[in-house]
Amino acid sequence: MIIRPADRKADAVRIGALMALAFHDDPVVRWMLPSGEGTDRMFATLARHVHALGDLAFDGEEPVGAALWDPPGHRQSALDTVRSLPGFVAAMGRRVSYGQLLESTFRKARPSRPHWYLAQIGTDPAAQGRGAGSALLRARIERCDADGVAAYLESSKESNVPFYEKHGFQVTREILLPEDGPTVWAMLREPVS
């Protein structure tokens, strides 16, 4: 498995398509977009305008997985916030408020100390079990360890919690999303020296 950094602009559509496949049955995505329509555009907008860094996993010539990360202290610029609005509105329509509600709820639960934030990670279902997710995680958590900084994520599926635990993450709390939303598991990984 080869991991390479993604280009936020050039790879955004590719990341959006991969994430739409990976998150096709995700409870949080279904809460925000019940029909699934617009999922690819929502993830492309996140890749292009919201998250600082992306990685792509390649098995041969085609990418089979992607991850979006924010380094410690990352804040979306005001310009990127404005630029993201058309993509989110086109993807989510009136349900764009669910995305804002999700971000507000998650922001309150995140650790106050510096940490790398894994916003999304996904593998094409046809490629699951080949190590793409693990390779994507290792690529960044090795950096976390080298820098002595924690990593944090919210798992939207309880069935994924053991995968993250295998990589050193531990559940710190459960988050119940408002508006009859699903439960999400906040997970933290302390750096290993």
TrEMBL record:
InterPro entries cross-referenced by the UniProt entry: Acyl_CoA_acyltransferase (IPR016181), GNAT_dom (IPR000182), Trichothecene_AcTrans (IPR052523)
One Pfam family name is Acetyltransf_1
Q: Does the keyword Calcium apply?
A: no
- Sequence ranges assigned to domain N-acetyltransferase in this UniProt record: 1-190
**Could you tell me what this protein is called?**
GNAT family N-acetyltransferase
Which of UniProt's keywords are assigned here? Acyltransferase, Transferase
Tell me which EC number(s) this protein carries: 2.3.-.-
PANTHER family membership = GNAT FAMILY ACETYLTRANSFERASE, N-ACETYLTRANSFERASE DOMAIN-CONTAINING PROTEIN
**Does the keyword Protease feature in the UniProt annotation?**
no
Q: What class of enzyme is it?
A: transferase
Instruction: List GO molecular-function terms, semicolon-separated.
Output: acyltransferase activity
| Highest taxon in the source lineage | Bacteria
Q: Which organism is it from?
A: Nonomuraea mangrovi
